[in-house]
Amino acid sequence: MGKLSDILFSAGNFVANKIQQPAVILLYHRVTNLAADPQELAVSPANFDAQLQYLQANYNVLDAAQFLAYAQSGKPFPKRSVLITFDDGYADNYLEALPIMTKQATPALFYITTSKLNTTKEQWWDDLERVLLTGNTLPDTLHININGAAHTFNTVDTAAITGTYYALQAILRFCAPDVIDRAMQYLYSWAGCGSEGRPSHRMMTFDELKAMAASPYVQIGCHTHRHPAVGMLPYAQQLQEIGQSKEILESLLQQPIQHFSYPFGGRKFLGSKRYYNADSIKACKELGLQMVCANYYGQVHSWSNRFALPRILVRDWKEEEFASRMERFFKL
Fold this sequence. Notes:
The protein is α/β, with parallel strands linked by helices and 332 residues long. It has helices at residues 2-19, 45-58, 64-73, 91-104, 124-133, 158-172, 177-191, 206-213, 235-253, 278-286, 319-329, and strands at 24-28, 30-31, 42-43, 60-61, 81-88, 108-112, 141-146, 149-154, 218-222, 259-261, 291-293, 312-313. The strands form 4 sheets. Strands 1, 4, 5, 6, 9 and 12 form a 6-stranded parallel beta sheet that branches. Strands 2-3 form a two-stranded parallel ribbon. Strands 7-8 form a two-stranded antiparallel ribbon.
């Protein structure tokens, strides 16, 4: 079913792009050099610099206000329009991405998860990597109860531990935040390590976020408080998670927050595991948000639903591969 739906979706994109030239929203998470990056979220500063240079020379890079105006108007986007977005709020967004954006005079929209701001804590998927994949001496077996279900994992060697990491990551991403927190607390005890995060994986401080928000090349949006898959939560909790991040950012930055992106945000509507749903869109509208991005492959047209816009995830591509992919994004 998944492969068939992807084929049909790609065919629909192709037809839509023949009717009207699309705009594309790019999704980044991190700009930094990491020793290990199992989620492939980091783009090196050198590659990010080259990517921005290429975009400025060959595409029409819009800022968030311009993109929103077209999305609200129902008019076609200008030829070869691109919006750059970042998710989560890693410190390197300010320390490494922003100086490159400033040098290249290139705007971007940053969606911020608020619970770990101004702390030394890592996001749970990074914390899972820290516990399992950074050389801690681990027991040979992990027995863990997650949300009422018992799980047993082999952790006897590197291959088994890596498999456990990916298996737990797949389970936890569909859990409520309190369930994730309990699982991580158990893992700290099981692995014999603390909860202190790595400086390389921290979120921004309040002062860093304020300084970044003051840049003419930056627009800030919210990304929930604790980064749950909101589609797995009841409506009231979705409203609280999204609204809390919006309120914190508005209070901290003294500016209205109009933009939001769904954590994980994949285009998954079948079965019980959903990253977002109709209640998520309802909550965004109730909170007065004006444009919302998801995280599934696709392009934006004048008729696209501005409360579930597709984005294209950027990896650590050198300029030649980035250029090739950009051309394909505008054709398929």
